[in-house]
């Protein structure tokens, strides 16, 4: 198993807590005699904030968790990929009629505010007419997909699934 | 059609794509900095290497 389930609300841990008998149980999965302490990744507040912030602004989820180096690298990479895609006259998907357009739009939406602001400013080409513009379109879509991966990573850091 | 501001070669486009994707993969798929760097380099080499290999394959098939 990749992630440790120690202390999590699993069936196994609940059974352990139920079988502990006379021991006072303060939380599910607590070991007898162990001090009650929060996990390092567990903090107060809205759990999904890093996920949403990371989706809207690349790297913001990691910045919220004070992972400055990781956030800066993720932000720079995703931002550079998106901007390079636009400067190569890549297409920004706006309306989806075919299945490939729907997939492209889903990828573009992964860029969050970058995509919304670019649409408002009218950036990007209406159609990719050259090979380079086609590369640019892929750069924009993949930047969105990478941003989703980065936002999920921030969520995993927030919940303590990843250190 | 608007002006294209950035016109990289095909190979440069591959290298840039591989670089940015590898950075994100390295940071998100591994936990310690050392393993992040190693995995990022591994992804970059695979991206660029497989592109070169497939390009040669297509060139030889087309002849």
Describe the model.
The complex is a heterodimer of chains A (163) and B (63). By secondary structure, chain A is mainly α. Chain A has 2 domains: 9-38, no CATH class; 49-159, no CATH class. In chain A, helix 2 packs antiparallel against helix 7. Chain A contains 7 helices and no strands. Chain B is built from 2 helices and no strands. Chain B has helices at 10-29, 33-62. In chain B, helix 1 (10-29) packs antiparallel against helix 2 (33-62). At the A-B interface, helix 4 and helix 7 of A face helix 1 of B.
Task: Kindly summarize this structure in a few lines.
The complex is a heterodimer of chains A (163) and B (63). With 163 residues, chain A is mostly helical.
Counting DSSP E segments of at least 2 residues, the number of strands of chain B comes to 0
Q: How much helical structure, as a percent, in the residues of chain A? A: 55-70%
Overall geometry of chain A comes to elongated
Overall tally of domains of chain A: 2
| Structural class category of chain B | mainly alpha
Total number of helical segments of chain B?
2
Oligomer: heterodimer
Largest sheet of chain A: none
Number of separate helices of chain A: 7
Average pLDDT of chain A, rounded to a whole number, is 81
